[in-house]
Amino acid sequence: MDTMRDRLAPVVSRLLDEDPRVAVVLAEIGRDCFTEASRRHPDRVLNVGIREQLLIGAGAGLALAGMRPVVHTFASFLVERPFEQVKLDLGHQDVGAVLVSAAASHDWPAGGFTHMAPGDVALLDTLDGWTVHVPGHPDEAETLLRHAVGAGEAKDDKVYVRLSAQSNGRSLPVDGQRFLTVREGRRGVVVAVGPVLDSVLAATEGLDATVLYATTVRPFDSTALRRATGAAGTDVVLVEPYLAGTSTATVNDALADVPHRVLGLGVGRRELRRYGQLEEHVTAHGLDAATLRERITGFLR
Questions:
Q1: Which backbone phi and psi does 243 adopt, to 5 degrees?
Q2: Which residues contact residue 88 at a Cβ distance below 8 angstroms, ignoring those fewer than 6 apart?
């Protein structure tokens, strides 16, 4: 099966053909995937070199000129390194862009800690007005990319699409807004974000718990959560493929008027200083099915 990132260039290249507003801004990473699109649209496929601050600045400039820029590189270089430009060039200037990341929290361990970004969503949470999509399957990534760019819709909002090498076994009909209920129970709610769904389903097999699937986490679907907790009780477990607890405050806000408990599971703050493999990082952070089952079961008891 192809990866989420494999879908990026074909989808965005088609959008370039369909909508003259769409532009692509790269910082070396991914440039070979857009070779043909660059030949067809040399004025709308830009490579700024290894200059991540300029990457965001160029995207903001295109947005100020009325374009819909799609800006792409690894998450650590897209959100963390040029954060001031994300804050000012996009946020302060009140223009939008579609930031599409790769490498997620630890998808390429051989790249070292410089290529890991478990805090990207939490960092964007310090800014106003961002939509955040976290697809869990390549088909969902394609759907959410198209939704984010909005070809022909004159969209100008700020959207972050977090692509990952991790994937669930099957796609679900995501719409860029709502959580999906994939399992119903009566003794707690587990919210699985993006590519952790398969592990969560394995971890909760046989448990009397509701499982919600979230691929759009900002805005957070508080309505779906409140509906689920009304039927299953107000013990909530969040399983996120990035920094543990990123959405805990959001859940607390959604349930502020009722007594509740929240357990936030995700990537820990401790830096793992050996490269290892992706699966080893998942296990080390307790996001494998066996560890999730132990922690979820203990909490819901």
A1: -50, 125
A2: none
Are 243 and 277 a contacting pair, CB within 8 Å?
Answer: no
Tokens of 241: 């493929």
Distance from C-alpha of 288 to C-alpha of 282, rounded to nearest angstrom: 6
Task: Give pLDDT < 70 ranges for the chain.
Answer: none
CATH topology of domain 4-162: Rossmann fold (3.40.50)
Question: 227 with 201: CB under 8 angstroms?
Answer: no
Query: Which residues share a beta bridge with 159?
Result: 98, 131
The Cα–Cα gap between 162 and 195 comes to: 11
The reported pTM is 0.97
Cβ neighbours, 10 Å, residue 5: 21
- pLDDT (0 to 100) of residue 152: 81
Query: For residue 100, what are the CA distances in angstroms to 35, 64, 78, 95, 291?
Result: 18, 19, 8, 16, 30
CATH number of 180-300: 3.40.50.920
User: Is 39 buried (19+), middle (13-18) or exposed (0-12) by CB count in 10 A?
Assistant: exposed
Angle of helix 138-149 versus helix 4-18 axis, rounded to 10: 30
